[in-house]
Amino acid sequence: MRPRAAIPEDLGRWFWDVDVASLSWATWREFIIGRLLRSGDWRAVQWLLTQVTLPELAQWLQHHRGGGLSAPRLRYWQLILDLQVADVNAWIAKSPTESWGGAPPPVTLHPEVMPAAQQEALRSVARWSLLSPGRPSDVSSRRWPIWPR
Questions:
Q1: What are φ and ψ of residue 51, in 5° steps?
Q2: Rounded CA gap, 120 and 6, in Å?
């Protein structure tokens, strides 16, 4: 087993929505791997590979059925990790972001690792949505003046 280091400061930009200092590898392993694989640059992947082995990464991708990675990233890891072509094809086919008109995967919020200001903003939005008419959970259907269509 490799030693699990804290996330380096220069990789903090990939975790813009959480307090990086509160992310422990033991608790947030799945989240950290997913975020860096989906959004990280080459430096992020290099650091990630100091934390997990290639077989662990392959197992993570299998368990998460591609983990929401883009088709080019999945094809890259298919070659590096010798993943089954049929599996990768299925993950890409089911990815909502790979087809026109598809919605992006849902965002998972982790308020317990958010900075205090973001936690308060999230609570404020939650209060607002409960007080507004319509279905509170369907914020995307509302007409926002600055929301792109």
A1: -105, -30
A2: 26
